[in-house]
Design a protein that fits this description.
Elements: H1 2-16, H2 50-70, E1 82-91, E2 94-104, E3 109-113, H3 120-127, E4 135-140, E5 143-144, H4 150-159, E6 160-163, H5 175-186, H6 191-204, H7 220-233, E7 238-242, H8 250-267, E8 270-274, H9 278-284, E9 287-292, E10 295-300, H10 302-307, H11 311-323
Parallel strand pairs: 3-8, 3-9, 6-7, 7-8
Antiparallel strand pairs: 1-2, 1-4, 4-5, 9-10
Helix pairs in contact: 2-6, 5-6, 5-7, 6-7
This protein binds adenosine-5'-triphosphate.
Protein name: Phospholipid/cholesterol/gamma-HCH transport system ATP-binding protein
GO molecular function, one term: ATP hydrolysis activity
Organism: Granulicella arctica
């Protein structure tokens, strides 16, 4: 334990005080600041790994654009990347979702809102095939996944990655090895390239130089940043975030929000964000779905939600204002 503390201090010190002549990655707090909202994702990446990272990011962006083009049209309109069509799910007699429909277009960010226990996480789990709906259809990348077997679901889980609240990192291996994991699985890069991508991704998400730490050495926010780096290493077409701002301080929440926004702008990543954090939803969401008593009570833009006369929506928004300090 003392050894780990020592290692963490050493890494943190390295981050603050680079050797003379060494590239000084920007501290996390300047990533995506208000004045430079959509600065390039690779802006904070060290010179030695920048060419590799630019190539990696360009490849990801091209792949996501191609994925969007591959989605079949529905009734002569571009199809959604993910859609729920009249989805119902119950556990025993307890109905969680009933005839719930919503969709996310390629490159769009959807926020799933609603009080505790309304089925937000259950929706994400169904989307990855960890739970099956009782009725209805769930389409991902143009395919109805409800009848998929485990092997087919693995293919979907490579296209759509989840960032869990706790990061779900492998505890017994280092941060760097966690991020390298999907790269090794894909088997396309050599060790030197993997090293460069891992370093670059960690710099990009604001946890530069933490490669050799264990997940247990990191704060909750850092774990989540590493989980995003690991998700990006897999070059997914979509990322699902389960409560990304829970248990992190407002600055870290802001940084995560900026990162998700830049991933959308520059990689055309499709995102679904489950959140209780209305400020976060306002910042990120192209559209929101509000779940209430088993139904998709509202599906539209944040602006439409705020202007709605619906009493349940008004109550939800008012309660949020009361709970959150200005
Ligand atoms: N595997 C399961 N078996 C039985 N019940 C479950 C299971 N998973 C979820 N539930 C129940 O389904 C309901 C919805 O759960 P879910 O985790 O989706 O809520 P949520 O909207 O994400 O809530 P929160 O905001 O508190 O995380 C809850 O009552 C939960 O207890």
């Amino acid at each position: 334990m003392a050894e780990q503390d020592e290692r963490k201090q050493e890494m943190l010190h390295k981050q603050r005080a680079p050797e003379e002549g060494e590239h000084n990655p920007e501290p996390a707090s300047t990533i995506g600041s208000e004045t430079d909202e959509h600065s390039p994702l690779t802006e904070d990446v060290s010179e030695d790994v920048a060419p590799m990272m630019e190539e990696f990011m360009e490849q990801a962006a091209a792949q996501n654009e191609a994925a969007a083009d591959d989605i079949p049209d529905v009734k002569n309109k571009p199809g959604s990347y993910i859609s729920f069509e009249k989805v119902s799910k119950a556990f025993g007699d307890f109905v969680v979702l009933e005839d719930v429909s919503f969709c996310v277009n390629p490159g769009e960010t959807l926020c799933i809102l609603g009080r505790s226990g309304v089925g937000k996480s259950v929706s994400l789990q169904m989307l990855l095939g960890f739970l099956k709906p009782d009725r209805g259809m769930i389409r991902v990348a143009g395919e109805d996944i409800c009848g998929f077997n485990e092997r087919q679901l693995q293919t979907i889980r490579r296209k759509v990655t989840m960032v869990f609240q706790n990061g779900a990192l492998f505890d017994s291996i280092t941060v760097g090895e966690n991020v390298a994991f999907p790269l090794r699985e894909r088997g396309e890069l050599g060790e030197e390239q993997i090293f460069q991508v891992v370093k670059g991704l960690l710099e990009m998400v604001g946890v530069a130089g933490m490669d050799n730490l264990l997940p247990s050495d990191l704060s909750t926010g850092m774990k989540r940043s590493v989980a995003i780096a690991r998700a990006l290493a897999a070059q997914p077409e979509a990322i699902l975030y389960d409560e990304p701002t829970t248990m992190v301080d407002p600055l870290m929440g802001h940084l995560l929000g900026d990162l998700i926004e830049r991933l959308k702008q520059q990689l055309h990543l499709t995102s679904i964000v489950v959140t209780h954090d209305m400020r976060f939803a306002k910042k990120l969401a192209d559209r929101v779905v509000f779940l209430h008593q088993g139904k998709a009570h509202f599906f539209g833009t944040m602006e439409e939600m705020e202007q709605s006369d619906d009493e349940i929506l008004k109550e939800f928004l008012t309660l949020d204002e009361l709970v959150l300090p200005a």
